[in-house]
């Protein structure tokens, strides 16, 4: 535009120059024409006139006219020439004027352009100053803040970091300030993640770039970095530049992972916990549901683990659990999930089973791992486990049903003598139903006076005379007849109903005893079982004391029985309560001795009067010499501790003879009497 205008001005100027040089030329032309015409006239007109006219007067007159003519003619010619030139001059003046005007407007335009340029220059300068200012500001912000800022020029690949290198322990020149230099520090496993995150943002799928990855520090360790950023694009959405920050989140990550471990892993055994197992089970349920596949859920519960914990301490218990986890880990294959669901219970999930045989084999394998003893702190321990199995989908189609049914099957295995596995089946389902019915029935049993007390005589070994009796509760069920405690005592214990049942038994026994005495004044020891729930009562001694007063009972004729497990659960409490009871003159017997893990030390600390050897020992007498030796030792040991010994479950003559030889104080068992109703017992007396 500017160039066009300049060219125009140049043209106008050169045209004017041309016209000025023309004017000189015309002046010269007119003068020469005039000179030539004048000279020709002078030379030719006189001669021509002389030739034409001889008369001198005429000649003179004509010569005057000729002079006039000449003046007239030259005046005309001059006029013509001058007129034309003047016209031309006028024209060119006019042209000059317009050119001038054009020139002036071009000049004005030029001035305007210059002003515009000046203005543009000013704004540019302004902008540059502002840019410098913001650049300075950003530099100060970056330097002043603790943030690790990075800035990547995508075209050149140059990458600037404010602090990242320093943070990783590198000096500035150790790592090149390029994208490639930075990428070399990224953990190989994280490169893909980083690339994906960049792509997502650059393609506009996410408004910000966000990624977590590991960068190698100078010591060779990887640090977790959280990076955020944003890309600047050109008009065609090509990223030109990306900038953002790096934040070291190694510590947070570590804590997060620890929290994850805490939430999903069992610290003791390093196995997954219940939550992780549930997670896994959920996935298996949905995938097996889609593909119509079967899988098995096994619950492995250690038998009598509580006793180990109670008698050997938690450290030994923990070590045992670790070893159990290890062994279970050895028998489970990859694809099968093993978890510790809590306490001494483990879950195994066996996916994709084709036949029940596979599951049974696994259960047998698990039971086998318990055959070898566990050695802990140079001692050896035996423990067994009971396994309950539920199979998807036949035994349950959801998590809770499957677990509940596997649990029921596991309890069946325990009830069936432990160290066994049981598959959930419909009989179990029926038993569960009857269990629930019994629970309901038990609530009314006391009100309806459906309980009875049976008595099993206890004999003095030396004289074979009845020295006392153990009171054993029975439930006279309206439909099922007289039920042994085996059918309801666990339910009552679990629901807490055992406390009122126990109270009823105790009162009934004291009432009966009072009646017996009124008929027969011989001393008779009566022994009452105390349930775990009853034993937890802090006022147990006071309650018994009140009752003995109420029924005018001689305390030395009353005995309570607690099991080893109950006594060991809270030794301190046991000692306090038992001491109080013994102070009243009431006897204390330790029931089912030998099934637990009581050591001699505990027996020494517990305030006891009687040791009742469990029937499982007595049952083996005469068949197993080792067992006989144990029973003999128990009796000797008890006597050393000044405890009297009662043998339970005596069924054979041979057993009676052996126990007599060993010096057992009292005998109880079917060999002599079964538990009998109160009226029958009264007759026996
Ligand atoms: P326990 O205290 O060990 O009672 C002895 C059990 O052994 C009784 O079973 C008795 O009938 C049985 N028994 C006695 N002699 C023999 C024998 O020669 N061979 C065999 N195989 N068994 C024999 P019962 O009456 O079924 O009682 C089972 C358990 O129920 C008792 O075991 C006791 O722990 C509990 N129990 C019974 N009555 C009460 C009670 O009133 N309160 C509480 N809390 N528990 C009770
Ligand atoms: Ca008992
Ligand atoms: Ca017993």
Question: Secondary-structure map with pairings?
Answer:
Blueprint: H1 2-52, H2 56-144, E1 148-153, E2 159-161, H3 164-167, H4 179-183, H5 191-202, E3 209-216, E4 222-233, E5 239-248, H6 250-264, H7 274-291, E6 294-302, H8 305-312, H9 314-331, E7 337-342, E8 345-353, H10 356-368, E9 374-376, E10 379-381, E11 385-392, H11 399-415, E12 421-423, H12 426-445, E13 451-460, E14 466-477, E15 481-483, H13 489-495, H14 498-519, E16 525-529, H15 532-535, H16 540-550, E17 558-563, H17 564-569, H18 571-583, E18 587-593, H19 600-605, E19 610-613, H20 615-620, H21 625-640, E20 644-647, H22 653-662, E21 666-667, E22 676-677, H23 678-684
Parallel strand pairs: 11-12, 14-16, 16-17, 17-18, 18-19, 19-20, 20-21
Antiparallel strand pairs: 1-2, 1-5, 3-4, 4-5, 6-8, 6-11, 7-8, 9-10, 13-14, 13-21, 13-22, 14-15
Helix pairs in contact: 1-2, 8-9, 16-18
The structure holds ligand C2E and calcium ion (2 copies).
The CATH class of the largest domain turns out to be: Alpha Beta
Count of distinct strands: 22
* Beta-strand content estimate: 15-25%
In total, the number of domains comes to: 4
Mind explaining what this structure looks like?
With 685 residues, the protein is of the alpha/beta class. The chain has four domains: 2-139; 148-256, PAS domain (Beta-Lactamase); 265-424, Reverse transcriptase/Diguanylate cyclase domain (Alpha-Beta Plaits, 2-Layer Sandwich); 458-471 and 497-684, EAL domain (TIM Barrel). The chain contains 23 helices and 22 strands. An eight-stranded mixed β-barrel has the order 13-14-16-17-18-19-20-21. A five-stranded antiparallel β-sheet has the order 2-1-5-4-3, sandwiched between helices. Helix 1 (2-52) packs antiparallel against helix 2 and helix 16 packs parallel to helix 18. The mean pLDDT is 89. Bound molecules: ligand C2E and calcium ion (2 copies).
């Amino acid at each position: 535009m500017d160039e066009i205008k300049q060219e125009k001005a140049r043209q106008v100027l050169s045209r004017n120059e041309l016209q000025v040089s023309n004017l000189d030329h015309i002046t010269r032309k007119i003068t020469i024409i005039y000179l030539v015409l004048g000279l020709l006239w002078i030379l030719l007109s006189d001669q021509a006139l002389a030739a034409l006219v001889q008369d001198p007067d005429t000649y003179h007159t004509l010569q005057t006219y000729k002079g006039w003519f000449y003046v007239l003619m030259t005046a005309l010619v001059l006029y013509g020439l001058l007129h034309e030139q003047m016209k031309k001059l006028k024209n060119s003046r006019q042209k000059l004027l317009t050119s001038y005007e054009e020139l002036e407007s071009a000049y004005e335009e030029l001035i305007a352009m210059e002003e515009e340029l000046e203005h543009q220059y000013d704004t540019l300068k302004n902008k540059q100053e502002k840019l410098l200012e913001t650049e300075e500001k950003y530099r100060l912000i970056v330097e002043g803040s603790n943030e690790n800022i990075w800035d990547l020029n995508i075209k050149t690949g140059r990458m600037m970091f404010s602090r990242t290198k320093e943070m990783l322990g590198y000096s500035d020149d150790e790592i090149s300030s390029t994208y490639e230099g930075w990428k070399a520090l990224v953990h190989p496993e994280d490169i893909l993640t980083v690339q994906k995150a960049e792509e997502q943002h650059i393609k506009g799928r996410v408004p910000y770039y966000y990624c977590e990855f590991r960068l190698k520090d100078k010591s060779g360790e990887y640090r977790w970095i959280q990076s955020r950023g944003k890309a600047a694009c050109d008009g065609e959405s090509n990223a030109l530049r990306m900038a953002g920050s790096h934040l070291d989140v190694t510590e947070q990550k570590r804590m997060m992972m620890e929290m994850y471990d805490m939430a999903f892993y069992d610290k003791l055994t390093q196995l997954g916990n219940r939550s992780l197992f549930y997670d896994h089970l959920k996935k298996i349920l949905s995938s097996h549901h889609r593909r119509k596949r079967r899988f098995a859920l096994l619950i492995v519960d250690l038998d009598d683990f509580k006793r180990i914990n109670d008698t050997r301490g938690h450290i030994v218990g923990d070590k045992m659990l670790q070893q159990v986890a290890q062994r279970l880990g050895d028998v489970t294959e990859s694809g099968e999930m093993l978890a510790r669901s809590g306490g001494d219970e483990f879950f195994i999930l066996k996916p994709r089973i084709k036949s029940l045989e596979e599951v049974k084999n696994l259960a047998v394998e698990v039971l086998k791992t318990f055959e070898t003893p566990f050695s802990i702190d140079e001692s050896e321990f035996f423990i067994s486990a009971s396994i309950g199995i539920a199979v998807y989908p036949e035994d349950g189609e959801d998590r809770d049903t499957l677990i509940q049914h596997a649990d029921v099957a596991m309890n069946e295995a325990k009830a069936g003598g432990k160290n066994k596995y049981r598959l959930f089946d419909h009989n179990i389902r029926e038993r569960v139903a009857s269990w629930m019915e019994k629970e309901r029935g038990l609530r009314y049993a006391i009100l309806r006076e459906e309980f009875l007390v049976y008595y099993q005589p206890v004999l003095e070994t030396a004289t074979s005379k009845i020295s006392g009796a153990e009171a054993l509760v029975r439930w006279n069920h309206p439909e099922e007849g007289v039920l042994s405690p085996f059918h309801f005592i666990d339910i009552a214990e679990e629901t807490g109903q055992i406390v009122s049942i126990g109270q009823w038994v105790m009162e009934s026994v004291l009432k009966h005893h009072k009646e017996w005495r009124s008929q027969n004044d011989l001393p008779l020891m009566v022994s009452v079982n105390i349930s775990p729930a009853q034993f937890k009562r802090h006022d147990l001694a006071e309650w018994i004391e009140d009752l003995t007063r109420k029924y005018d009972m001689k305390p030395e004729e009353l005995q309570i029985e607690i099991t080893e497990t109950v006594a060991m659960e809270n030794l301190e409490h046991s000692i306090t309560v038992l001491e109080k009871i013994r102070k009243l003159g009431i006897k204390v017997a330790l029931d089912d001795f030998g099934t637990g893990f009581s050591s001699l030390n505990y027996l020494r600390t517990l305030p006891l009067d009687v040791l009742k050897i469990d029937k499982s020992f007595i049952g083996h007498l005469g068949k197993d010499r080792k067992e006989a030796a144990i029973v003999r030792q128990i009796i000797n040991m008890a006597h050393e501790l000044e405890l009297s010994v009662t043998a339970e479950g005596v069924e054979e003559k041979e057993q009676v003879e052996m126990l007599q030889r060993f010096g057992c104080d009292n005998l109880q068992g079917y060999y002599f009497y079964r538990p009998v109703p109160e009226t029958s017992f009264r007759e026996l007396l």
